[in-house]
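Step 1: inspect the first sequence and its tokens.
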Amino acid sequence: MKSIKKEYSNGEVTIVWKNELCIHSGNCARGLPTVFKPKERPWIQVENASTQELIEQVKKCPSGALSFYMNSEQG
């Protein structure tokens, strides 16, 4: 499988997704279905939740495929 890394930002936080780590547990889609929509493109729609909600859900990813960084920490 080709390694893909995608980033999705709401301006405050950026969600990073690495496909090769994803084990498809579904935690993200069950926890925040308004944001994580595997059948849609883009499948992560960060505008549908608060920064805090996004961070809390990403921390529940068991595989490490989802991570985040605060934009203020970059640069």
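Step 2: inspect the second sequence and its tokens, then contrast the two.
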Amino acid sequence: MLRLFLNTSVTFWILSYFLPTISFSDWTTMLIASLVMVFVQKIIKPIIKFLFLPINVVTFGLFSVVINVAMLWLVTYLVPGFEISNMIVFGYHLSRFGSILFASILIGFVQGFVTLVI
């Protein structure tokens, strides 16, 4: 659990450093957001995945992307000072959902690399 917390904290720090649209008000907010994200990933996400299992089966697992976006949105909602603003990616202006989706994808990639290091 501590390893996942460190992994998430480093991932949030890296993404907030390189992307100005992912912002934290201070270090404490980043650590609280990491703690809430770990709680959401370990407690809430399995329950939601179980509840939406039929939809996930019908869509061949693509609905799990929507679940990931919902979990990241929940973290931004619960932690004041943690914000993911609208992004412009490759010349396309993304909505709030698109920005959180892109951030969710980046979190998955960066956590994979950070896991190799930690």
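Step 3: confirm your contrast with the notes below.
Helices lie at 2-18, 27-51, 53-58, 63-78, 96-117. The chain has one domain: 2-117.
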